[in-house]
Amino acid sequence: MFEVYHVMIIPLILGLVELCKRAGVKKRYLPFIALLLGIVIGVVYVTNFNLKQGIIVGAMLGLSASGLYSGTKNTMESDE
């Protein structure tokens, strides 16, 4: 299941989302990308393809990476 060192995945997700940001992805989509990356990493790496646990753990990792507050704020704001 989830080990303490899996928390190190959060900075990895942050880095990948930052790459997407620099590639020109609009800010409002970045929280969704973080969530999707978290779920994929949770299912594939953390829980070894245990779908239910992977989605829960991955959602926790993705939401932690994006920041629940800032992610919601960026999603609701209009694009500039």
UniProtKB/TrEMBL annotation:
Which UniProt keywords are given for this protein, alphabetically ordered?
Answer: Membrane, Transmembrane, Transmembrane helix
What superkingdom heads the lineage? Bacteria
Q: Under which name does UniProt file this protein?
A: Holin
Q: Where are the transmembrane segments?
A: 29-47, 53-71
